[in-house]
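User: Predict structure, ligand 2'-deoxycytidine-5'-monophosphate.
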Amino acid sequence: MDKQIITIDGPSGSGKTTIGKLLAKDLNLTFFSSGAVYRVITKHYLETKTLNFENLDILSTDPIEFKIDKKHYFEEDLYTPEINEKSSELAQQLEIRTIVENILKFIYDSSRNGLVIEGRDMGSVVFPNSKNKIYLDSSKKLRSKRRMSQSNNIETEEDLTNRDQRDSSREHSPLVIPDGAIVIENNEVTIDEVVNKIKESLELP
Ligand code: DC
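Assistant: Predicted complex:
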């Protein structure tokens, strides 16, 4: 029997990580933020000025720890305004998307019971056969409010709008509502209400 794969796509600040982590915990699945892989490649690029590397190892998914060649990268290194912006730019490149896609499939294969994974193209491109696709949306005002309240990684409404615009209009794997996805508006509802709504919609493997 195939392992469970639940995809959550949506724009920045729509609540994908908060909701996804709770859902994964409830269902005893692994949670992963696909953006973290774009972010670590970006961090490595900013340090070395090259996109070339031999190995990218995932040492832990929670909290995130990666190793690129000999250098370790931790979750707290990856969520900065500079990396928000630059990762969205580098994520336009097909070569990078292909590397990340293979890493994400490896994470799914290595997960114990299955995966809840969030991003921009999880249900449309990376796991198109998932039976459980969610598209989480939220008003720009609320999304921006969520981002402005992240004390270590503030993102202004303007920055968020530009990043969403780039992520939605790029040539390769833009953010779209995947075929078959359930669209949930994360406005004026509690986190538990959203998690329960998703759970009620799930098709079990
Ligand atoms: O989800 P995040 O903010 O950590 O993602 C950072 C950037 O990575 C995002 O602006 C675009 C890119 N990304 C992507 O292109 N596809 C994904 N599935 C996830 C992230």
